[in-house]
Structures are given as structure tokens and as C-alpha cells.
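pls read this stuff:
=====
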Amino acid sequence: MSENIDLTQAAPIEEILEDEAPKATGQPSNLDRTINAHFAGAVVRKDLVKAVKGNAIVPSYVLEYLLGQYAASDDEATIQAGIDKVRDILAQHYVHRNESELVKSRIREKGRFRIIDKVSVTLNEKDDVYQASFANLGISGVLVDPSTVNANQKLLVSGVWCLCDIEYFHSDDVRAVPWILGSLKPIQMSNFDYQNYLSARAKFTTDEWIDLLIQSIGFNPEKFGRRAKLLQLVRLIPFVERNYNLVELGPKGTGKSHIYSEFSPHGMLISGGEITVPKLFVNNANGRLGLVGYWDVVAFDEFAGKKKRTDKALVDIMKNYMANKSFSRGVETLGAEASMVYVGNTAHTVPYMLKHSDLFDELPESYHDSAYLDRLHFYIPGWEFDTIRGDMFSTGYGFVVDYIAEVLKSMRDRDYSDRYKQYFTLGSDISTRDRDSIHKTFSGLMKLLYPHEQVRAEEIEEILRFAIEGRKRVKDQIVRIDDTMAAVNFGYQRLAGEWTAVTTLEEDEYPGHYHRGRPSTGSVDDETAELAVPASRRATSESSATAKEELFQGQRDFVENQRGVSYDTLLMPYLRGATEIELHDPYIRMSHQGRNLVELLALIASAKDPADEVFFKLFTLLDDDPGYQKKQLQMLSQIVQGAAQQGINVDVAKDPGGHDRWLRTDNGWRINLGRGLDIFQKQEGGWFDFGSTRQEFRQVRAFGVTYIRDDS
């Protein structure tokens, strides 16, 4: 027997609508304590960067380098003292352009002064000397010792942030430069212990480690689901994998270029319009190498734009480099290891692009070419990311950027691409180029998540599937563009023999548009396509008995970030015609969970004859916290009253099961709900977000549903 819940002990209705923030404890999280216990001195609280940056126009890794020196602690007093120290260093030594004359005066008066500035070096062939320029200080022609240049060759290509001691000595020689470089130290870590890194990794669960990496790039892991976290981490693969070619296209404001400009001293972000052959590869006039010869990652910002003019010679060299990891300098062929990243904005929605063109539609014409696109290893679906909001940034601990940057750089020499082969094999019709792309992504994710190689078969399967999906997104669009390219059945097979097909998320969401004009590979079933059509738009003239026979039975799984899902398509075909419905969901507690219940009840009310009544029995559990429990009771009381006005009699009782979530109807169906009604990601856009009024516009969490005929 279930125990009815007394709804009279309720809080005022206004309290129900308060912000659903986590209950504050005033203490560091368990994850932060674990992080500090195993990586003391190598982590910093990520919100401190904002506290010290002020109006200094410097990358985050420069500030974190300083914070790592003075504020890498979980002791509040030490942190505050470190913040004060870093602020003082920036105030005294960072060169603001509008204060450059003041800094020059200090150098002259003191004879020697330390500055923080971006330094670039050129070779003066006439005098056979290296000369440095200081971006903010505004001086040039400063002599640099060749040994300093040889130890820091990136100084020759677009500049490096450094701590420098500058001296002043005036000479009567009008050709002599009075500025002397006393010392130069690039702002990056000199060394670290890789074995200690691996040992410490073993102290974390996979979920904890992923959250640590997400905090390290500056985001709050609580704001992201599992799939969204993995997509964020794919952005790091170019830093850990040599010659990795990545593209990300999506709406504005989703943080596509942030990692490449702020995260690592080994990456270079340049505007797509600034790309030239000499700058990127080699200047044949003087033989000087371009960016790919010195940087681990070269990222092209604002790469999209159909009408952008492009250099055909550059495109050809880039295609050769992306395929063969080499380029020509006159008669000489040179190799390089730089990964290439292309980020740009889309102007249309995903279904629009799939219906009218393809997912590479926004690229310049010269790059909208199957030979170029086929060299891309992974396509990050930028449309799955939310627009960056202030509450997405982390206040927890993450790796000091220069520390994790050196860790990732050190792993570029390692190869984890075959670690899946003890459990799985790839499909036989996957080409060599497709296979190489999958291998590089898989290897990169292994290095990021499981560098210690303590990994279970199901964890390997997760990242293998993810790697396949990213390459499939590329290949499926190439098939649309080039009629000579054959469709590929992407998937993998367990050694025991079971085959698993892999689909992309947009393929599951928009199967009709995705497979337009393409031969089928048998990876999308008709039931999934049917789910994309709201039940209210389907024919309703068939009899109830016929409808029962046609309704799908079995298991359906939905992927995180998927859209186009609603209670109307998911549940209403099975609930229509029922007069008694029983819902077991222990988590109808927070206001968004109450809203989910109201939306289901509203659909039931609109589907029935206004003269009929439906009896709805809700089995749930009360919150353990007395204060939250009062709000929960008031919310449930309001729902019961509102439902009664629409002819739905809701009875609320304590769930005897406690954890299982399912629906049962008197018209012969039982529906097992993996997440209950709580399948949608939390909406942050308020009433101006389209998802606030239509469920199919919301992104879902990963969940499964099982439909079972229950004639008893």
C-alpha cells in the first residue's frame, strides 16, 4: 500500500519560484579538495584571473602563470596574498601602451627594469644580428644574443609574451640603440614530472577527471552534460595530437576561438583574412619558416564566409600539408607537426543547411571542396553549444594553464590509437583516410582522459563511438558535395561479433533532410524518423485498436543535446484514450520538474474530450530538507488544483519503489522512463527562449524509454 502525501503543509507560492541554485555549504567541493590534494602547486582557482586582470590586455595563460607562482593554494589567506602580489607585479611591470613613455623613463632612471611585454625578433641580414621589438613598450632594434633566439625560436614568428630585464645605456654613436636586453624568460613552464601526473590521474574517477579538465579550461562542469563536456575536450585534441585537422562551425558567441587564444602558449589564433603562404608555411624570398614550423596549433578565426576571397595557391599547399604533413620550399620538402583548426560562424539552422545545401555551406568557395574537406579529422557541431553566459565560468580549481599546456605538449609524441583493438574492430568498408581520422581522435581523447591507460571497455567504447561520429559528420557532407564519393556505413564491431552502427545527432534529429538525395546506409530506422513528427500532426482517424497495433514496442535511446523531442511525440500516442494513468517519478521536487509534470498534464487535458475525466496517480518522494519540502508540497498542491480545473483528478502518494520511473495506463501500456519526466536540459534563456514554450526546441539529456504492452 502506498501512503498518500499531505499537501497542506506547504510554503508560500512565491518561494517555489526562487532560483534553483545548489544548496550552499560554504566549503570547497569534494572535487576541489581532491584536486588540491594530488596537484598542489599546479592548480589555481579559475575565477582569480578576473580578479587580477583589470585592464591588462594579456592572455589568460600569462595571468595564470603569475597566479601559479603566488596563489596556487586552497588556503584563503595565501590566495589573497598571492592576488595582491600579482596585482602589484602587473601594476609595476606590465607595459600599457599608453604608459610606454613612463616605463621608458623608469628604465633610463633606474638603469635596469623588468617588464612584461610581447616580444618578437627579426634577423637584420645587413648587420648579421638579431633584433627584438617590444609590442607595448614601442621600442625596436634591441640586440638579442643568438643563443636566446635558438632557445626560443617562436620569437621569430609573431612574438611571445616574456618577462624581460631591459637596460639603458646611451652612446654618442647615432646608429647605436640605447636599449639592452639583460634577460628574457618566456612565460611558460620549464619542466614537470610526467610520472607524477599519471600517478595523480589514477586517484580520480573518470567523471572527476573530466570535470577537472573542464574547470581547467575555465568552465563550470555543472552547466554541461556528458556529451557537451566531451565536445569541449575535443577542442584540446590539436594540442595533444600532431597534425590534427579540426573544424568547428556554429552560431556566434559559443566560445569557438577562446581555447586557441587563451589556453596555451603553444597555440596561435589568427584571422582567416590574414592567411598567406609566407606567413603560414614559408617565405621563399628569404627562406624563413612560417607559423606551422614553430607552433603546435594554428587556428584560423572567422574562417567561414562564402564571399571571402582566397588564394588558390594557399588552398593547394594547405591540402597537401593536411594530407602529407609536409610542404615545399623551392626544391626542398619540409615537414611540420602543427595541427590546423578552422572555426567560423554559421548563418542558418542545421535543418536549413541540410535541406538546402550541406553543413559546410558557410565555407569560402575554394574550401568548399571535397579534396580539402576529406582531410578534416573531426567536425565539432558548434550549434550544440549554448551561447556563453557568465554563470558558465568556473569558480573551482583547475590546472594552471602553462602546466597543462606542457603536459599536453609532452604527449604529442605518444600514440594511443590502437587501444580499442582488444575489444572492438572498425567496419570493413571504412576507408584508410576515415580510419586514420577516427584513430587520431580516439588517440587524442585517450591521452586527455586516460593517459594512465586504466580504462574499462565501456569507456573505450564511448570515445570510439564519439570519434567515429565526428568523422562521419565530415564524410556524410562530402558525399552530398561530390557524387563520386560513396556513402560509408560507419560503425564498429565487438570481438564477440555484435555490430553497432554510429549516427550523428543531427541525423537522428532530422533524418528526412539528412539523407536527402543519398543512398541509405541502413543506420536510421523508420521509427526514429516518425518520432520527429509531432503526434498532433499525425492522422488520428484510425481506430484505437489499430493505433495500438501500430505503436512501437521496445527500447529507444536518445543522445544528449538532441532536439525535436517532446512528450507529445514520446508519450501521448500511448496515453491518448486512457482514463487512468499512473506515474512513478521520485523526483518531482524542483520547479522545473513541476513544470515538466504540468506540461504532460496539459497535453493529456487537450487530448481528451472536455466532458471526460482522467484519473492521474502520481507516486513521488519528498525532499529530505524541511525547507525545500515545504516548497515542494506547495508546488504539488498548485498542480493538483490546476489539473482539477481541466478535468484531471491528480492524487499524490509516496512512491513505494523509491527509484524506478515508469508510466502505466489502463489502455494497455507500461512505459519505463530512464530519467522520468526530467529529460530536458535546464533552460537559461527565460521567456525569450523558444524552448520555454515548445519542448521540441529544447535540448535533452541522454535518456532511454522502453514501451511494453501490458494487457493485464
About this structure: The longest strand covers residues 112-124. The longest helix spans residues 457-481.
